[in-house]
Amino acid sequence: AILGPLKDKRAATLDRIAISIGRQGTRPQGLEAFAACSLNAGGAAPQAPATTAPANNPPANGGGQAAPPAAGNGQRIVCPSVKDKLPANIPASAQAEVDRNLALLDTQIAEANKRLQETVGQGGPNFVQNAILGPLKDKRAATLDRIAISIGRQGTRPQGLEVLATCSLG
Question: Is the CA virtual torsion 63, 65, 68, 69 positive or negative?
Fold first, then answer.
C-alpha cells in the first residue's frame, strides 16, 4: 500500500530526470534501479546519530547572532546581534528577563537551522523564506518587543530593535 506506489512515483520522477538530461546530452541509463524503497528492521525510520554539546559549553551566539552552520546543506541562518544594540545600563530588575529572551533568540535560531537542515530540497523557490525565515522574523520581533518592554518598565525603552528581527541565509 505504501512501498508500491512510492516505487511507481520514484520511477516516473527518475524517468523525467533521464529525459531532461537526455535532451541536452547523453541520457543516463539504469536510474530505475533507484526507484525501489524498503523499510528497515521494524519498519522505523532510520535514526540520525545524536550530537550533543557538552553541558559546560552552551552555544554562545551573542543574543541572536549567526548560529553554527547547519549540517548537510552548508547554509545557516544569520541574524543581527542583539546584545550589541541594547543599552549598556540595563536595569538590574530587568536583567534576568532580558537574559532569558536573549537565550530564546539563540534557541529560535537553532530551531530554524534544524528546520533548514531537515527540509533540504523541499518546497519551491520561496520555501525557505515562507516556511523558515518569515516565521523566525515574527518570533524574533515578539521576543525583541518583550526585551524592550522589560527594559522600559524601569528605564528608557530601547527604540529600533525591530530592525534586528530579520535574518537571512549565510
Answer: positive
Measured CA to CA, the distance from residue 84 to residue 36 in angstroms comes to: 53
Residue by residue, what is the 3-state secondary structure of the chain? CCHHHHHHHHHHHHHHHHHHHHHHCCCCCCHHHHCCCCCCHHHCCCCCCCCCCCCCCCCCCCCCCCCCCCCCCCCCEECCCCHHHCCCCCCHHHHHHHHHHHHHHHHHHHHHHHHHHHCCCCCCCCHHHHHHHHHHHHHHHHHHHHHHHHHHHHCCCCCCHHHHCCCEEC
Do residues 167 and 78 touch, judged by C-beta distance below 8 A?
A: yes
**CA 116, CA 38: separation in Å to the nearest integer?**
26
Distance CA 92, CA 81 (A): 21
Sequence letter at residue 131: A
* Residue that the C-alpha cell 527540509 belongs to: 119
Tell me the pLDDT tens digit for each residue of 79-127: 999 998 999 889 999 999 999 999 999 999 999 999 998 888 888 778 8
Per-residue pLDDT tens over the stretch 118-158: 888 888 778 899 999 999 999 999 999 999 999 999 889 99
Overall size of the chain counted in residues:
170
Query: Contact 137/105 with Cβ under 8 angstroms?
Result: no
